[in-house]
């Protein structure tokens, strides 16, 4: 592996570690309970929550990217309606 | 991965589970649509986002050494001025510095002071986790009185750190800069509002943002938001801003909780609840009240 000229390192997501491997528990979103308030999305340290609208939903609901979720549990803690539960 | 939030700092970085630092970076950088250049002091953020060969940064990013992040920003600002003068660029990018409390209160203070005094156009953001957390939790100038740290351990003869925190806001304010503010990662709207104001300021601006550290404040990984909120609800960490010397308290707490509420959720203050250390808690409460009344006076 060699450095680019000037020692510049460019962002390349394929070189990223999959930090999802760290998780010892996984958040699960109860889509019926989720009110789409985005609180979990804002506080997620790894930006792995996106608000996604499924066909049957009226509102966008939290959707978690397990490739990068470290399983910290912040989303479950901040959820105002307790729609996220940490599961082993 | 959230596309909007990872435009400037991607996922895949190695901050600890439940660390709020990346949230601070995203909300600060998300407050502007203009191009940004980031300079970073050595610290948690630097070591976790730049593990070779991966970098989580999608914007130009410079890390040189521990103590000179502000000097690096000053250099970037001066270089942009020169390029503007010679017509090589038409518009300047925003320069944002991120430093921890070690890189700001202690090691980088001289460089910060110099850059503020020279009036460079940059925003300095200090994420304050109150110690050298990346190396195991040694005390820093930002560590509060009574905290158990690696280099100020609590035990039979000691109750932890015996000195008060530096008042960094007043040190920075003494440079007569146009905008500086104290914020908290648990109050995202407050943080975003302040970041926007700071980035719109011409000349130096400064943000001091509380960042509860799950590893060395010793609380569960899911709790950084809750602990951050307690810091402000007990008036340990009031949210305020100073614009052209004028103080404004942004979040007046009507019924402040006793400081024990904030201390008891953290392992680093566990020893204070032993009988022999009761006085230390009383001292902390007195200091919190004193600091708040001083702040209220200044804001009148």
Number of helices of chain B: 11
Shape of chain A: elongated
Largest sheet of chain B: 8 strands, mixed
Strand neighbour order, sheet with most strands of chain A: 1-4
* CATH fold-level name of chain B: Rossmann fold
Name of the CATH first level of chain A: Alpha Beta
Count every beta strand of chain A, where a strand is a DSSP E run of 2 or more residues: 4
Contiguous low-pLDDT stretches of chain B (5 residues minimum) are: none
Estimated structural class of chain A:
alpha+beta
CATH superfamily of chain B: Thiamin diphosphate (ThDP)-binding fold, Pyr/PP domains
Mean pLDDT of chain B: 97
N-to-C CA distance of chain B: 45 Å
Figure out the total of helices of chain A: 2
Rg of chain A:
16 Å
Mean pLDDT of chain A: 92
Q: What is the total number of structural domains of chain B? A: 1
Helical content of chain B, roughly?
A: 25-40%
**Percentage of residues in strands of chain A:** 15-25%
**What's the quaternary structure here?**
heterodimer
Structural class of chain B: alpha/beta
Which chain pair has the greatest contact?
A-B, 34 and 39 residues
List the helices and strands and how they pair.
The complex is a heterodimer of chains A (88) and B (300).
Chain A: E1 26-29, H1 39-43, E2 49-52, E3 61-64, H2 74-78, E4 84-87
Antiparallel strand pairs in A: 1-4, 2-3
Chain B: H1 21-29, E1 36-40, H2 44-49, E2 61-63, H3 69-85, E3 94-100, H4 101-106, H5 109-118, E4 123-128, H6 168-173, E5 179-184, H7 188-200, E6 205-210, H8 214-218, H9 224-233, E7 240-243, E8 246-249, H10 259-263, H11 278-299
Pick out its properties.
heterodimer; A: 88 residues; alpha+beta; Alpha-Beta Plaits; two-stranded antiparallel sheet; 2 helices; 4 strands; elongated; B: 300 residues; alpha/beta; Rossmann fold; eight-stranded mixed β-sheet; 8 strands; 14% strand; globular
């Amino acid at each position: 592996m060699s450095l680019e000229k000037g020692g510049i390192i460019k962002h390349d997501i394929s070189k990223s570690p999959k930090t999802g491997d760290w998780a010892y528990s996984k958040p699960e979103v109860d889509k019926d309970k989720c009110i789409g308030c985005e609180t979990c999305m804002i506080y997620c340290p790894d930006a792995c929550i996106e608000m996604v609208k499924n066909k049957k939903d009226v509102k966008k609901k939290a959707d978690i990217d397990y490739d990068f979720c470290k399983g910290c549990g912040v989303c479950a803690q901040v959820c105002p309606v307790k729609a996220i539960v940490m599961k082993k | 991965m959230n596309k909007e939030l990872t435009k400037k700092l991607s996922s895949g970085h190695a901050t600890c589970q439940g660390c709020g630092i990346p949230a601070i970076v995203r909300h600060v950088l998300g407050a502007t649509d203009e191009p940004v250049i980031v300079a970073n002091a050595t610290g948690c953020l630097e070591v976790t986002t730049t593990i070779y060969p991966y970098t989580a940064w999608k914007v130009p990013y410079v890390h040189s050494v521990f103590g000179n992040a502000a000097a690096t920003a000053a250099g970037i600002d001066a270089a942009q001025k020169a390029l503007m003068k010679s017509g090589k660029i038409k518009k300047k990018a925003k320069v944002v510095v991120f430093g921890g409390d070690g890189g700001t209160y202690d090691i980088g203070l001289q460089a910060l002071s110099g850059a503020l005094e020279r009036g460079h156009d940059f925003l300095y953001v200090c994420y304050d986790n109150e110690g050298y957390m990346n190396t195991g939790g040694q005390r820093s100038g930002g560590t509060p009185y009574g905290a158990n740290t690696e280099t100020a351990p609590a035990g039979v003869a000691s109750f932890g750190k015996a000195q008060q925190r530096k008042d960094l806001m007043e040190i920075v304010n003494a440079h007569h800069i146009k905008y500086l503010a104290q914020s908290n990662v648990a109050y995202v709207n407050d943080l975003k509002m302040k970041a926007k104001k700071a980035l719109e300021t011409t000349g130096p601006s400064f943000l001091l943002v509380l960042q509860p550290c799950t590893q060395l404040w010793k609380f569960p990984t899911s709790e950084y938001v809750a602990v951050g909120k307690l810091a402000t609800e007990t008036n340990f960490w009031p949210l305020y801003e100073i614009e052209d010397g004028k103080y404004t308290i942004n979040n007046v707490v009507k019924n402040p909780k006793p400081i024990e509420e904030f201390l008891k959720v953290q392992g680093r203050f566990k020893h204070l609840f032993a009988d022999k250390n009761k006085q230390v808690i009383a001292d902390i409460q007195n200091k919190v009240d004193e600091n708040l009344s001083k702040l209220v006076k200044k804001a009148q």
